[in-house]
Amino acid sequence: MEKEKISIIVPIYNVENYLSRCLESIINQTYKNLEIILINDGSTDSSSEICNKYSIIDSRIKVIHKKNAGASVARNLGIKIATGDYIAFIDSDDYVELNMYETLYNNLINVDADVSVCGRCVDYFMDDNNSLSIKSNNRSKKIIMSNIDSLIAMNSLKMFDMSVCDKLYKTSLFNNIRFPNVGKCEDFYVMYQLLYKSLKVIYDSKKLYHYCKRLGSRSNSIVDDSYIIASKAQILFFENNCPEIIYIARCYYAYANTIYFNSCILSGLSDDKLAERRQDVKQNIKYVLKNKYFPLIRKIQIIVFAYIPFVYKAIILMKHRREVI
To answer: Which member of 15, 82, 187, 195 lies 3.0 to 4.6 Å from 150 by CB, making a disulfide possible if both were Cys?
Structure first.
């Protein structure tokens, strides 16, 4: 019996230095029944030529060239044209282990899950030619969760987070669910909807997805309140659908405020709304303390941010200097 088809959607924009590595990791997967959908989102470098070259090499590849409109629009187009029984996403500057989709698929099938998740490691890049891959022991620990348990896990930062890229989904989950065109954090809006809709989720701690992060890049220090906005949207979703765990969403909202402040610090900017944000965090401290699933170190981070911000700022600057050195 032939295994079911997996549609892998790859939005692409000006990633000529990384694209071949990404595509090689896909076409050489041990799981062979793949539909590889490359959405070239108006690239102005050689990414479009690289896409065309690989489509000749591998007949499983479909290439769509379109005007630039952002990753959300590209992913939604990929979902629309996908013909697979399952859907997966890869960011075009990342790459995956060669057995990633076989592992995700087998885990999902074995327990009849709707979503299969794997571990993720970070490759830190100092420049285009050198990388330091941070990868701890790669033993496999599997956990089966209900939809509520998976929402708690995602918001607790212990197993997996809001990225859509280290996961495999039943295609049917995307009926009436699409990525919002919000510029950033679009994964977040989709993930809590998909997990809530799932009857069963399986997590495998084996690190199979490589997230590539450029140290010192400007994007790492841009002032960005996307997580705050997305966290507010999640609170509203929880209020309407799973109010019994609303404290989980409110706890993450408090944490999102620290992420915003971090970007302010690293950009050398002062936040004229800092007092307002600290007040927001203080109003949610009770939810942070109530959340037994949230890591203690993150709870301390939120409390220090809310009540002794000058100490918090010094810690963030010290940590950033260590990363850059």
So the answer is: 195
pLDDT digit string, tens, across residues 21-49: 999 999 999 999 999 999 999 999 999 99
Q: How many CB atoms lie within 10 A of CB 28?
A: 11
With cut-offs at 50, 70 and 90, classify the pLDDT of residue 218.
very low
Give strand pairing partners of 65: 40
46-71 pLDDT tens trace: 999 999 999 999 999 999 999 999 99
> What's the pLDDT tens digit per position in 132-177?
555 555 778 999 999 999 999 999 988 999 999 999 999 999 999 9
SS (H, E, C) 67-106: CCCCHHHHHHHHHHHCCCCEEEECCCCCEECCCHHHHHHH
Count of CB atoms situated within 10 Å of the CB of 174: 19
Residue located via tokens 């071949």: 20
Which residues, including other chains, have CB under 8 Å from residue 202's CB and lie 6 or more apart?
107, 108, 111, 113, 115, 116, 117, 142, 143, 144, 145
Q: Are strands 201-214 and 115-125 parallel, antiparallel or unpaired?
A: parallel
Domains and CATH numbers, the chain: 6-214 (3.90.550.10), 218-324 (no CATH)
Residues 6+ apart with CB under 8 A from 36: 8, 10, 23, 26, 27, 58, 60, 61, 62
CB-hemisphere CA count at 13 Å for 65? 10
Q: Are 243 and 227 within 8 A, CB to CB? A: no
Dihedral pair phi/psi, residue 38, rounded to 5°: -100, 115
- DSSP bridge pairs for 201: 115, 145
Crossing angle for the helix pair 296-307 and 309-324, nearest 10 degrees?
Answer: 120
